[in-house]
From TrEMBL:
It comes from the Eukaryota. This is Polypeptide N-acetylgalactosaminyltransferase. Belongs to the glycosyltransferase 2 family. GalNAc-T subfamily. Pathway: Protein modification; protein glycosylation. Its main location: Golgi. It comes from Aromia moschata. It is a single-pass type II membrane protein.
Amino acid sequence: FTWIISLYLYFQLTKNDIVANDTRVQTEQPWHKYNSINEPSQKYSSKDKSYLKKGSSNFLNSGKLIKKLQPVLAPPSHKDKVEEELMNLGIVRNSKDQEIRDEGYKTHAYNVLVSTRLGYNRSVPDTRNKLCKDVTYAKGLPSASVIICFYNEHMPTLLRTIHSVLDRTPKHLLEEILLIDDQSDIPNLHEDIDDYLKKNNMSKVKLLKPETREGLIRARLFGARRAQGKVLVFLDSHVEVNVAWIEPLLSRIAEKSSTVVMPIIDIINADTFAYTSSPLVRGGFNWGLHFKWENLPKGTLDKNEDFVKPIKSPTMAGGLFAIDKKYFIDMGEYDAGMNIWGGENLEISFRIWMCGGSLELIPCSRVGHVFRHRRPYGSPDGKDTMLHNSLRVAYVWMDDYKQYFLNQRSDAKNIDYGDISSRLQLRKELKCHDFDWYLKNVYPELALPTDDEEHLKKKMPDKFQPWHSRKRNYVAQYQIRLANTSLCVQSSKDTKTKGSSLILGVCAKNKRQMWYETDKNELVLAQLLCLQAGKSSPILYKCHEMGGNQEWKHKGGKQTPIYNMAAGTCLGVSKKAVNATLTMKLCNDPELSNWDLVV
Ligand code: UD2
Ligand code: MN
């Protein structure tokens, strides 16, 4: 009993720690539930906005608008609680928080304030198809060495990666975790990790460091060559593995050692650390040799059981996969002539398929990965290693088809891609199929570039997010009026100009002041552009549907703060005046950051 009491007290204390100094949050939690002004005691679940959704698009199309945020009497769901907790974790309470957050975005390109406050052992939603729960795996699966390379990773995020593996991998299947510190230059990072592992007796985790910065490809080789397990599992250093993630991977390799298998990569939002399920998509590429996600061929998921069966994939994203150790060695490991980042995923994909193996996605294995908006590091010599590495892929594996790549990359002409003779030799020794065979047998869906596409060869987005649905569901429409004034938030220009700032204007029923809220908590002006939190002020921007800086929470009704999930701050103004510019502020100034939603 005392144990329960102390646990309870502990939670209360840590909770207070999180919300200390923020009286508003203490008194008004949970504030992402809609509290109607008429019925102050009622709770409305943000999740259950489906009631507003019903027929809402028809509603809008017919010119009528939803008049009111209607109440729903549903207890907060588990998902609501998780959302609420993530929201609290993101709150910027003072300038110190702001500093940590800004510095974190610079060094790591994600929200370290949230990540730090999350701690090392959070649970994640089980995103597997429910049929996965009924699958049983043979006894005596091979053991795995999990290899995690990192360069300047944020320590709490890395530790959560490690703990998730330790917590969710059966002991007998985990030989070791090899942590390869690729010469990180954040002061004390290496020592701090080392201390942590020692203090917590984490002897299964071995921290190693090559003599020079190798880049992720040679750092993985460094780890693989020291691994004791029968299977190698590669992971990025900012992931969280899901329940029973490793069994289906090992089981498939045990059946056939020349299958290389991948989990489905779920999405950990870089701004909020929300963990969400990814759709079943497979890996492809384009002629710029950029990896991309694509829909499965028609018919792949016809029957229920197809959702638990391995799915063939022409390529891998690169970060997360399992491979039989002996097969990895026999196959020529990785191309050690590749530097820092990029291209190795297509190289190993082509090689596996062309030289007799196969590459599969395992839907019952899921691992979340933090998808960042940019890569926060470069190469030591400042060169584009992706291009260098892609040239090696093209010249070793693509035969005449490499011309399509070269046509797209006029900047590739004078790049020295190094000596590839040993890789060509490998291809010969392994008696691999040619690239034409690969295209015809593994990836017949890939179209050859047409003249049209030549024109589209402009800069490819660096991105490789699993895509998101484009359908937008509006759940409410209102003006946003500064409380106790007659001033409303409006675009500084028209409603169409990307990047426009927002200002206060005298409230008037025109479209520059008409905000449409979506079921993803976006605020869309005149159904065109999304309100997006910037560093110090919000702007109008193309809706990216990724939540984060376009995700806004409020209580509805009158006198509500409008909180941004990524920024951890609220929508505000510096003064009550026409033309005053909207800013992002700490959420503790009701005079200048409380709003009435006027329907
Ligand atoms: C994707 C892959 C990544 C890799 C890359 C192409 C996923 C989820 N991620 O990019 O694994 O295949 O495409 O090369 O599929 N690192 C080092 N040394 C370095 C640079 C990076 O150890 O010099 C580490 C880094 O800390 C991270 C991993 O390598 O753990 C991958 O790097 P990333 O997360 O920046 O790559 P990502 O996910 O954008
Ligand atoms: Mn990554």
